[in-house]
Every structure is written in C-alpha cells, then in structure tokens.
Known about the structure:
By secondary structure, this protein is an alpha+beta fold. It is built from 2 helices and 3 strands, in the order βαββα. The chain is globular and about 35 Å long.
Amino acid sequence: MSDWKKVYTTGVDYLAELLKQVLTDNGIEAVVMNKKDVTYLFGAVEVMVKTEDFEAAKQITEEFEKNTRIE
C-alpha cells in the first residue's frame, strides 16, 4: 500500500466507515484499516486514500471533521 496515504484516524469505527462512504460518494477510492487490538479494543481505525487523491480527500475530511465533532 505504498501508493496510499492516511487521511483520517479515529478510535470510533463507524466514523471511519462514514468518512469512507463520503469519500466514495465524491469519487475517491478509500479503504478502512482497523488497527484496534481485538482483545482489549484499543488502537486506531485509519482511512486511507490513494496518494493522487490525498489533497481532495483532505479537504473533504476537514469538512467531515467539523460536522461530526464528538464532545
């Protein structure tokens, strides 16, 4: 996956899946990489996009983060 870059990291699985769908809806191929430990459920979930889509994906991700802030 050397031609892929991480565009988003979260500890909340469904947010990663939701962002993946938003990116896909905007024509950007994305994959979710779950790096959580299955026993203790700590770690991160990452959304990856192809390097050539990174800048467009980053703008979409920033807007996504503003609209999904969990407090």
